[in-house]
Amino acid sequence: MLFLCFLFVFSVKAQQLETLLLAKDDAGKLMGNYVAPAVKGVMYSMNGGWYTTAKTHKKFGFDITINASASFVPKTDEMFDFVSSDYTFLSLPNGETSIPTVMSDSSHETVVDVNVPVGDGTFKVASFEMPSGITDELPVNAVATPMIQVGVGLPYKTDIKLRFVPRLSFDNTVDTNLLGLGLQHNLMQYLGPLQKLPLSVSILAAYTHMKVVYNIEDKSTIDNVVVTNGKAEFEMDAWTVQALASLDFKIVTFYAGLGCNNGNATSKLKGDYALTYDIEDSGGVVIATVDETISNPLSLGFEVKGVRATLGSRLNMGLFKIFADYTIQEYNTASVGIAFSFR
């Protein structure tokens, strides 16, 4: 439910992203600062929930898991500093120095002024409001990613894992899908007599890809931006390598992991956008208006990397399992789920 709520609420804010294009060459930096916590949160949550034990299946054993991971946005990423020297054409007329990101609980919409020299002593000017945050409409300030995962035991005590979210569409506004692949190899087979202990040790390498597309509908007639075939596309790739250990008892399993995260994402604003500016003379008097049309105006990049440490436990009720774990990383992440496991 948190994932669906996040997609719906974020899609409402996506309908306002086109107004940032009035910022001209500064639009990319402004949009990047605004959406970064949501994009980073998705990438961190995509790396969660890959395992509930370090023990691998016997040959052709399998499990089916339904799980969700939620990455919590740090307080420091709920706002971003507006440093005027970082922008060529922008200013905040009300003397503000920080702006809410999309993962803020602030409902304040910051006014931004645009002033672009034309070169003949006149200026193209406009004003717009930054979208506010969305977390006051979410149960918790976190970005969640659900998934279905299937694991199958291969020879040499290795599991192959496939995770996916089938293509989902909401009101012709949002489309999303996810696909991931992982390999887990049990190291206890090389440790001789230690294999008789309830201890398991393995290594995991995994990769996940996710794509989200928001169709931008031109609902406002007063924002000086006309949208044709507008889309905001987010593509995210996340991978992780971890050393795993678990104590596997009949009723309960305790597991841990230590490793690293990496992730890259792109955000693209596609379509045609007609922008309207006032033309002012050097005295600030409006003397005309001008229209400009731009196509596929933005392509942004994001990156995450760092170490991660996970602790979790699993309740074993025959073939049925219930698990939960918590990961310490830049965006701390909780994962919960249920699984059916055989052999």
Number of helices: 2
Q: Tell me the Rg in angstroms.
A: 24 Å
Biggest β-sheet description: 10 strands, antiparallel, barrel
- The parts where pLDDT drops under 50 for at least 5 residues are none
Mean pLDDT: 89
Helix coverage percent of residues? Answer: under 10%
Structural classification: mainly beta
- Number of DSSP E strands: 16
Distance between the termini: 31 Å
Overall shape: elongated
User: What string gives the helices and strands in order?
Assistant: HHEEEEEEEEEEEEEEEE
Strand content: over 45%
Within the largest sheet, what's the order of strands? 1-7-8-9-10-11-12-14-15-16
Count of discrete domains: 1
Question: What this model shows, in words?
Answer:
The chain is mainly beta and 343 residues long. The chain has one domain. 10% of the residues lie in helices and 56% in strands. It is built from two helices and 16 strands. The strands form two sheets. The protein has a ten-stranded antiparallel barrel with strand order 1-7-8-9-10-11-12-14-15-16. It has a two-stranded antiparallel sheet with strand order 2-4. A hairpin with a 2-residue loop joins strand 14 (298-317) and strand 15. The mean pLDDT is 89.
